[in-house]
Amino acid sequence: MCGITGIISFGGDSKAKQSRMKIVEDMTHAITHRGPDDHALWGDDHSPVAFGHRRLSIIDLSPEGRQPMESASARYVIAYNGEIYNFLELRKDLEQKDISFRGRSDTEVLLAGFDHWGVNLTLQKINGMFAIALWDRQERRLYLIRDRLGKKPLYVGWAGDNLLFSSELKSFHTCGDFKPSIDRNVCALYMRYSYVPAPFCIFENCITVPPGAVVRVNTQQTKTGDDLSSMIEPYWSHKQCIEDAVSKRQNISDEDALNGFERELKAAVSRRMISDVPLGAFLSGGLDSTLVVALMQQISDSPVKTFSVGFSESEFDEARHARRVAEFLGTEHHETYLQPEDALDLIPNLPDMYDEPFADQSQLPTAIISAYARKHVTVVLSGDGGDEVLGGYQRHYSVPSLWSKIKYIPRPLRAGMACLLESMPYGFWGVFNKVSPQIAERAEKVTGILGQKSAEDVYRHLLSHWKRTDDLVLGGQEPQMPLYSERMNIKSLSFAERMMYGDALSYLPNDILVKVDRASMAYALEARAPFLDVNLFSYLWSLPHSMKVRGGKGKWLSRKLLERYLPSDIFDRPKQGFSVPVRKWLQGPLNSWANDLISHDRLRADGILNPDLVRKEWDCCVDEKANARAGAASSRMWNVLMFQAWKQKWMP
Predict the structure, then answer these.
(1) Nearest to 151 by CA among 221, 78, 81
(2) What is the four-CA torsion angle of 91, 97, 102, 106, rounded to 10 degrees?
């Protein structure tokens, strides 16, 4: 696990090598946290390219694993971040073709594959998480490649005559030719979703390489300022993978499905336990992390080190559930608790940790648990990705049934009912809240669904925080996300499956994986996710939907498989997630921090967000009357606050 940086110089003199190397040195220094064990640079007088690499040593700790690295033929040079989990099998295959290796690293195997099979075929063979910068001396072409499901990040952007690329955007700011300018249209997308979706970037003339894609830069054809999005080419497709898997669906017994799931997940876990440094696991007490830890414990010769984070507020605390799991499985368990003062200490660091606007509230506990785990291990396994492939979100198992009942009510009538409910005063919602906060929250969600035109609109509504971003972001107009384009549609899927597919395309890589990557790598901790194994992904999509959602609950397969390892009373409970008491903190210890960021004068001077709209939402958020709307308001305000804090850090 590492961090990569680089530059291609265009223009008349293509910049001298010395100048390029100084730029890359500064870029690489900016991401030291991603690889504190070692660093190196590469460049030569015969190409306009230079690479930088920060190393977090995981496999082959010797100098033989050092990057940037040249291939045996000297044709290719690589700077690479990630892990290739099937590199041992690929190495055996290559050794049978009389290819020898000097070290034990997966990087050397990657380069041998590129030499022997070529770039395209090698990408089809590898199974892992990665961001790769590969320079082809023969073709004078640069490949910037991201893994299939989007585990590792990779940004590309123009800085004058230089094309920059890096694992994190903060590297760009070290280059004097980089002139950051906020893309207001992308800002509108961020306000809706709490994240910036690939291939967009918060800065103009920059992109995020999408999952399963390669940016091919031909230095003999590319000109300064060329459209970067036109250089994106997919080498793997979610759509094609799912269509192929669905086409193979056939009747299968519950027992056979369970056995297949156990086989594939156990193989994915086993591949991710290969490490030359201490290894452990995040354990939230939820189904996914519990299942990963149960399999790790079965595979391991010694107790697995597990880590959980809790809250002093009992309604948000999951640590007690994780503790029960750990006690039953016999892990070496460690837990820490997140207090409001911890949040106060951490929040000033979030804009540096997430150097693009990001507002998933669980970024706070994720950062806390990452820092805590790093004191004991260098690698952790997590349960990330399980919800998206096994129907784990409430929208997967509750919303389709609800929509099937209300969609036949004439839309004008539904829209009228929604307007009436939305106009109700706080006191109306407070009545629901006194009966049950969960009922109040669901009542507000139903209100939002009532006025939607189609299933796709319902899904977009459920993912949205700010609904009318054109009113919020001055001069901003949301571009269409690839998620909603007709070419990405799979007509054979049910409504629930279309939401799961949409989550895999966008919510998973742009929210969940960004959250974990930045939080873990801020503390030089490598996080591996077995549920993101491409073989497991394909297998689960080949199973009927009833294997995932059954009896009004999601993750049927996970529940049944866990029964082979734990008593059901330990794990079978309502999904809680990494919930954070943000509204309570904003009303109390974080109040002055927030008020300063969103003062009317500051917002008006910035000229990006509508001050009146923001302040109105803030008043709702901090209103002492408990109601469902205030909970939603706190979520929307977190988007605004994280944007303002980010802007203060990176756009002074």
Answers:
(1) 81
(2) -20
End-to-end CA distance of the chain: 32
Check: CB of residue 168 under 8 Å from CB of residue 3.
yes
The DSSP call for residue 543 is S
Residue 313: pLDDT band by 50, 70, 90 thresholds? low
Dump the DSSP string for 120-150: HHHHHH--EEEEEEEEETTTTEEEEEE-TT-
Q: Using an 8 Å Cβ cutoff, are 289 and 304 in contact? A: no
Residue 147 phi/psi, 5-degree rounding, is -65, 165
| Cα separation, 118 vs 121, whole angstroms | 6
The torsion angles phi and psi of 598, rounded to 5 degrees, stand at -115, 30
Instruction: Report pTM.
Output: 0.94
Q: How confident is the model at residue 192 (pLDDT cuts 50, 70, 90)?
A: very high
Q: Is the dihedral of CA 401, 405, 408, 414 positive or negative?
A: negative
Q: Locate 625 and state its tokens.
A: 């009357």
Report which DSSP code applies to 357. -
pLDDT of residue 316: 56
Handedness of CA 308, 383, 398, 414 (dihedral sign): positive
Judge residue 475's burial from the number of C-beta atoms within 10 Å of its C-beta, 0-12 exposed, 13-18 middle, 19 or more buried.
Answer: exposed
| pLDDT value at residue 238 | 95
Q: Which residues carry out catalysis?
A: 2
Phi and psi based region of residue 111 (left: phi greater than 0; alpha: psi -120 to 50; beta: remaining): alpha
Task: Find the largest Cα–Cα distance for the chain.
Answer: 77
| Residue range 282-307: mean pLDDT, rounded | 95
User: Phi/psi at 442 (nearest 5 deg)?
Assistant: -70, -35
Host H or E run for residue 214? strand 213-218
Is it true that the peptide bond before 153 is cis, omega within 30 degrees of 0?
no
Beta strand ranges found along 476-525 (DSSP E): none
Tens of pLDDT along 441-478?
Answer: 566 677 788 889 899 999 999 999 999 999 999 999 99
The reported pLDDT for the residue numbered 585 is 84
CA angle 334, 335, 339 (to 5 degrees): 155
Q: Are 512 and 563 in contact (CB under 8 A)?
A: no
Close Cβ partners of 344 (under 8 Å, ≥ 6 residues apart): 589, 590, 593
Could you tell me if 210 and 232 are in contact, meaning their C-beta atoms sit under 8 angstroms apart?
yes
DSSP structure string for 549-606 = SBTTBS-HHHHHHHTTTS-HHHH-S----S---HHHHHHTTTHHHHHHHT-HHHHHHH
C-alpha torsion 105→120→153→9, nearest 10: 100
The answer to whether 161 and 15 have CB atoms below 8 angstroms apart is yes
* 105 confidence band (pLDDT: 50, 70, 90): very high
Could you give all domains of the chain from N- to C-terminal order, each with its CATH number?
2-236 (3.60.20.10), 240-340+358-392+497-571 (3.40.50.620)
The DSSP bridge pattern shows strands 232-234 and 162-166 to be unpaired
Mean pLDDT of the chain: 91
Res. 484 pLDDT band, cuts 50 70 90: confident
